[in-house]
Amino acid sequence: MAKDGDRPVYRVLETRTIGWILVIVLVVGVSAAVLLILAYGGGDPRNSLEAIKTAGTIVIGSGGAVALWLAARRQRTTEIALKQKDLELEQKDREQAHAIRDGIERRVTELYTMAASQLDSDRAQTRLAAMYALERLANDNEGQRQSIVNLLCAYLRMVDAQPREHEWQVRQTVQRILATHLRPGDTFWPDIDLDLTGAELADFDLSGCRLRSASFAKARFLGRTSISGAVFDGGVSFDEAVFEGECKLIGTRFTSSVDLQRAVFREQVDCGSAHFHQHVRFNYAEFAGIAQFSGAVFMGSVQFGTFKGDGARFGRLASFRATRFAGHTVFAAVQFMDQAIFDDSKHESFTAFNDAVFHDSALFHEAEFLAGVRFRQVEFRGNVIFHKALLRAEVDFSGALFGAEAWLGNALLEGELGCWGARVRVDVGETHRLWPASWRVASSKVEELPDREGSWAELFDGALFGAAKQGDE
Questions:
Q1: What residues are paired with 380 via a beta bridge?
Q2: pTM
Q3: Dist CA 383 CA 50 (whole Å)
């Protein structure tokens, strides 16, 4: 086929070819007609007339066939031309769209660069204007949102920003921009990651927000912090974070792992009804105020300590009332300085309190331990009460120290209950203790314990040793 530059020549050749075809068809038709007239026209006039009619039909038919062929040819040529024109228009549209995209991207880059450069201004008004410009850019350009969020987070992480004029007003504006667009709604920015590692945040509010993942490691939260009702679809880290004021995580959902190792809560923390779907770590965490976990759900494993002595410390009331522990739970080496409440809690998997210290009351009213639970080497300095608790599997109090009242006798026991090496303090005056039916206190063998006040006697299971009742309290 001829190229675009050869189209006039091609059309001339095509026109000549069509002309020759038309002449040939007409010649053939006329020749056939002449032969018919010569063959049949010499005799009867009627035969001559029929021959002429037949010859005319042949000639006309030949011309009609040529006309139809020419019409089809013109139609095909027109269709090809239109298709070629459409292809050319599509190519122009693509080139124009590409040019528009390039222009938009260049303009976005220019605006982003300009706003970013203004964040270092000494004037608070300039920095605020830059923040709002970045917000508008993110609203209008979905592909730029994570980059803009990263820039806003980097600003909040700046440690040299405090001395500048009206800095807290600017930082509050950044926090509001993030919170506004991380809450599901008309202006929601989905699938956003936050990196606020080491940031200093005041009255931080992410309540009702939804994020993919977040890092608050080593961050410092001033004033009141609220992350209640938020949803984190990815991992979250609060490692070594410090909460100077009240912290609320009520109803917060963590669908992936959560790290709060060495986190410090100076005031009350409320995790009521929070959902932790995977592994959670509170190793070395410090709760100076009231710690509220009532109604929380831990679907994965949870560590408030390990068997290496890195347990958390609860300075005031620690409430796990009606908390559900579906996975392995470890409170090893945890220090409960005030009352610890586990009433109505449900432990569906293995639970360990090894080496924990309860400085005040430890309450397990109607708690359910459906798998093995260990209180090995636990020190109960206050009252310990398992009133109507369900102990379905093995329960081990080996080496435990009971320093005050103990009510275990009316627990619902369905598994083995061990107390090998446990001790009971016998010089605390009149106390009330209710042991399982076979447990005995060897009151005749009183001893002093290293680093422990008072006099102590061994607690043992008489059924295992076949011992007679002695010193039963």
A1: 358, 402
A2: 0.77
A3: 132
